[in-house]
Each structure stands twice: as structure tokens, then as C-alpha cells.
Write a structure and sequence with these properties.
Length: about 150
């Protein structure tokens, strides 16, 4: 179980950072506002929240997602792809839910923003899937001193 947690943590940090950086790059190039949607937590806490805390919560969420997928991959592989499909629909729905829950309105180009949000979250899920299927996480764990 410890290997699952370590693997999920490492992959969660990497994939969460990649998703953030890609959406940040998109925001720089287009000013769509997807990063604000990704890390916004004003509907949970209305005070002034440092951006690093919002980013940290995004990374923690990514870690939890990766650990859950690793558990499914190891313990119930037959559900692995089904879980990815369900997660893709959840991520697509989160676009609208997070916009609706935001205390301060988040301006995004609805159609383009939704399409890019969905594409990059599916890419996030695909990266998790490829990592587990190709056992890149196990190779990395063995390199940093984990047992086989």
C-alpha cells in the first residue's frame, strides 16, 4: 500500500503541475482564464487566500486522484478504463460547477474555455493512464530506492 501512496503522490505532483502549467500557458497566450477556474477556492473560503495555497490545494487534489487511480489499477484493473471515462465526464462538469460556485465571477470564453478545459483534463487522465499501464511509476520508484 505504501508503494501505491508514494507512486500516486509522485505522479499527482507531476501531472498536477503539468496541467497547471499548460493551462497557465494557455491563459498567457489567450487570456481565457482557465487557471483562475482551476485553482479558485473563494466558494470555500471567502477571505484573501494566497495563490500558493490555492496551487497547493490543486496539487493535493491531483495527488488524491492519482492515488485513487493507482488503487483501482492495482486492485480492480477491470474498472480502470471505466473510472477514467467517469472522471472525464466529472472534469467536464466541473467546468460549469466551478464557474457557478465562484463568488467572484470568473470570466472565460464559454465555448473555447470549456473545450480547452475538457481536452487538457482528458490529457491529464491519459497521462495518468499511460504512466500506470507502462509502469513508468514503478521504474521511477525503483530508481529512487523503492523495492520491486
Amino acid at each position: 500500500m505504501m508503494r501505491i501512496i508514494i507512486s500516486g503522490t509522485i505522479l499527482g505532483i507531476i501531472t498536477g503541475m503539468l496541467l497547471f502549467l499548460v493551462l497557465y500557458f494557455i491563459d498567457i497566450m489567450t487570456d481565457i482564464g482557465l487557471v483562475n477556474l482551476l485553482i479558485n477556492i473563494d466558494f470555500i473560503y471567502s477571505g484573501d487566500v494566497p495563490a500558493i495555497l490555492e496551487f497547493g490545494l490543486h496539487i493535493i487534489t491531483s495527488i488524491i486522484i492519482c492515488i485513487i487511480f493507482k488503487i483501482i489499477y492495482v486492485r480492480a484493473f477491470y474498472l480502470h478504463l471505466k473510472a477514467h471515462v467517469v472522471a472525464a465526464f466529472i472534469f467536464a462538469g466541473l467546468y460549469f460547477l466551478l464557474k457557478a460556485l465562484a463568488v467572484e465571477p470568473i470570466q472565460t470564453d464559454s465555448h473555447i474555455g470549456f473545450i480547452l478545459w475538457t481536452i487538457f483534463h482528458i490529457g491529464y487522465l491519459q497521462l495518468i493512464h499511460l504512466t500506470y499501464i507502462n509502469q513508468w511509476d514503478s521504474i521511477l520508484l525503483n530508481k529512487i530506492g523503492g523495492r520491486a
